[in-house]
Amino acid sequence: MADKDYLRGKKILIVDDEPDVLETLKELLPECETVKATNYKEARELLEAGYFDMAILDIMGVDGFGLLEISVKKKVIPVMLTANALSPENTIKSFKEGAALYVPKEKIANIVTYLEDVLEAKEKGKGFWWRWMERFGEYYNKKFGPRWQEPGKDVWAKMEEQKEKGVKYFLFPGA
Fold first, then answer.
1. In angstroms, how far apart are the furthest CA atoms of the chain?
2. How far is the C-alpha of 6 from the C-alpha of 2, rounded, in Å?
3. What is the C-alpha separation between 32 and 165, in angstroms, rounded?
4. How far is C-alpha 94 from the geometric centre of its chain's CA atoms?
5. What is the pLDDT of residues 21-58, one digit of tens each?
6. Are the C-beta atoms of 120 and 10 separated by less than 8 Å?
7. At CA 73, angle to CA 66 and CA 98, rounded to 5?
8. 129: burial class by Cβ within 10 Å (0-12, 13-18, 19+)?
9. Would residue 81 be called left, alpha or beta, if left means φ above 0 and alpha means ψ between -120 and 50 degrees?
10. pTM of the full predicted structure?
11. Domain layout of the chain by residue ranges
12. Residue 107's closest CA among 77, 130, 140?
């Protein structure tokens, strides 16, 4: 990470049905303006009515994939943060549907680093997932076993390409 404070002044929507997760995120992101939502309807209304730089979306309990679709349409940088829906398959789905990152809730303490990775990638014209394997590859090896990458080899290859070549970043599928 460079010396830049990528998050200062960013407006971030945080969506989770667990109040303690919302409070933790708010505490971890003091340099940001955070807006909390505890359900799909509330989050959808906020996304449709206002401007956000980023959205941190849980998957279970708030229809995170539905909110991901809205975020992509509204050009809000979406980051998936999940525990119960943590799987290589949902990681692939998030990547393909336009999420800028997929973060296990177990790693929430490092959320600033991950969000800064995304914003640094945007600034440098890299793919948002350029550091994902570096940040989470070993975690996935331990959690899902050494063969977790076999399904979706094309997706993992695209992630590595972003890291190796610094491809032009994409935020929205087809853009």
1. 44
2. 9
3. 31
4. 8
5. 999 999 999 999 999 999 999 999 999 999 999 999 99
6. no
7. 70
8. buried
9. beta
10. 0.90
11. 11-124
12. 140
Residue-by-residue DSSP string for 2-49: -S--TTTT-EEEEE-S-HHHHHHHHHH-TTSEEEEESSHHHHHHHHHH
pLDDT digits (tens, 9 = 90+) for 156-168: 887 777 665 555 4
| Superfamily of domain 11-124, CATH level 4 | Response regulator (3.40.50.2300)
Type of residue found at 119: L
**Pairing of β 54-57 and β 101-104:** unpaired
Structure tokens at 147: 């063969």
Nearest 5°: the CA angle 106, 110, 114 is 110
pLDDT, tens digit, 9 for 90 and up, residues 109-141:
999 999 999 999 888 888 898 899 899 999 999
